[in-house]
Protein 1
Amino acid sequence: MSKTVLKVEDVSMRFNLSSEKVDDLKDYVIKLIKRELNFQEFWALQNVSFELQKGDRLGILGFNGAGKSTLLKVIAGVLKPTQGKVTTQGKIVPLLELGAGFDKQYTGAENIYLYGAMLGYSKEFINEKYDEIVEFSELKDFIDVPVKNYSSGMRSRLGFSIATVVEPEILILDEVLSVGDEKFKKKSEAKIKSMFDKGVTVLFVSHNLKQVQDLCNKAILLEKGKIISQGSIEEVSEAYGEKLNR
Ligand SMILES: Nc1ncnc2c1ncn2[C@@H]1O[C@H](COP(=O)(O)OP(=O)(O)OP(=O)(O)O)[C@@H](O)[C@H]1O
């Protein structure tokens, strides 16, 4: 029997866009108190619903600003939806904006603990996996250096190594299949592939339709925050193709 590992129910996400120019924080606070700040409501996601079974690989398609990254962030728990509910079973590994959660004043070693805690790992678990993370990142010589002195590639390598040290049930990929330099990229791709081989459930956002077709069995197509097509990758690719050629 197939097992449902992700359920997205009627999810909507509203952002308040400030329609005025505010020069500084003081100005902002004064306007806020005087209720002179005007916000424009913007719905980045509207009534999005779908569910995935164990081993499903879902491609999320859509043009710029359609709501793809917002949906991934809601599923990863980075954003709380304005409306609706996301239910997940098992460990989620979000490979989103790798290393963006680092505190740059702290060293690589300290960030392994900080970032790990953010991903829900216990201190004992990180103690146990610490050497493996450092080894995979190939940053042993830099591990006691503040992250602000890392290159962006080094940051994403450390982020990738921390995030993938667990065996996830759900893997979230936002066009990050290329991490670091060519050598590391190969290694990270092999690691992702090994997760695929173990039957992980995947959510994948990419503008590269070919890549999505190669990787995914199901897809959804988003337009202005709404699902306008969902089903097998073949069906949804066709709907996307029609949009592209319009
Ligand atoms: N934190 C935020 N505050 C306000 N608006 C936001 C925020 N994050 C996203 N948006 C808006 O929500 C919409 C959807 O953005 P999102 O990044 O999810 O699109 P996307 O489909 O991933 O686009 P792209 O293909 O360009 O990456 C955009 O109009 C964007 O401006």
Protein 2
Amino acid sequence: MSVANLIFQQFPSAPVASLSTLSPFSHCSPSLRGTVKFTVSCSSLVSPVTVLDGSVEKKVFERNEIRLGLPSKGRMASDTLDLLKDCQLSVKQVNPRQYVAEIPQLSNLEVWFQRPKDIVRKLVSGDLDLGIVGLDTVSEYGQGDEDLILVHDALDYGDCRLSLAIPKYGIFENVNSLRELAQMPQWTPEKPLRVATGFSYMAPKFMKENGLKHVSFSTADGALEAAPAMGIADAIVDLVSSGTTLRENNLKEIEGGVILESQAVLVASRKSLIQRKGVLDTTHEILERLEAHLRAIGQFTVTANMRGSSAEEVAERLLSHTSLSGLQGPTISPVFCKRDGRVVADYYAIVICVPKKLLYRSVQQLRAIGGSGVLISPLTYIFDEETPRWHELLSTLGL
Ligand SMILES: Nc1ncnc2c1ncn2[C@@H]1O[C@H](COP(=O)(O)OP(=O)(O)OP(=O)(O)O)[C@@H](O)[C@H]1O
Ligand SMILES: O=P(O)(O)OC[C@H]1O[C@H](OP(=O)(O)OP(=O)(O)O)[C@H](O)[C@@H]1O
């Protein structure tokens, strides 16, 4: 298919700018560069670039501080601060209108509050070293830039998916898959499938990769779900979480139409990790705390007493139930008491970790095999010897 079919048109209210003025899109992948006409521009404050002999070289401002970008407002903002707080990395902000803050536990680190898309742009430009945003934002504004590295790809909030949706009615009534949509005879060079989206990089890329010929795109700042009913578009590409907005606007997702599953991620600049002093160590500490906290979520410590002839015999009984096996296995210690003037240990204290969803069943099983005095407390952290993500990061960096 010719990519020239992917033409970005404008919504009546959208601002117009030519491709040459669009700094965020000027590093489009070669396959899209120069062939897709965008009409909406967003500018961002990033370090200036210097052009030397036709190549672009970034003028990096000298700085020693490590910079972490966090969402300044919107859906991700408070959940991000809550997560860091749960990891004992509370962000100290003097007042909510101040965009710089600190995390006292991490020396030499500055927190900068920015809009999610600007966090990604500033990671690419070298003005930030680390950031927490949605994967959708990294994919859209990072545009596959190899300098962006996902340090933690599943922070467990901000879950949503980027999806293609079409009307439930009219010519789309019996269309339920991307293949069926692509095969509709209606789409021609003169009358392409009109898609409304805020994802002006991801949506055309997806259409192209899935062989959808004759597609045009338009954009708007929000309420995209209105576009089909208004007659402005045939389909939309937008974020979906509960699906309520689609349903309320008589739209449906289709098989094969999910472009990306997204959640909050920790992303870093490869250059910063390798070149900037202290960034790798700070990233290690943040990663360890995140991993330890996220691993502990939904896990409980269960302690109980069990009668038994030996620790091994108690272990046999526990290990015969998978829900009582803990993370690595049960910890079993003798409980000493004095009987007839002699110190004996015919009780054992057992400690295991149990996921919340198995808690009640585990307690029942524990009682059934002789457990008594069962105590349950939530877990705050589970620190492993070393996190797999840290090893992955080092290998990605070639270290
Ligand atoms: N239902 C949802 N709709 C939109 N975003 C969601 C949803 N659920 C989770 N998210 C996450 O929240 C992010 C949107 O957050 P927010 O609204 O603050 O940003 P934004 O829309 O990119 O900001 P801006 O106002 O600068 O355009 C998305 O990038 C996505 O990762
Ligand atoms: O599947 P749902 O849970 O209904 O969520 C999806 C909706 O949420 C977002 O819009 P947002 O509320 O940010 O407003 P906007 O349309 O003005 O961007 C997104 O753009 C969808 O419209």
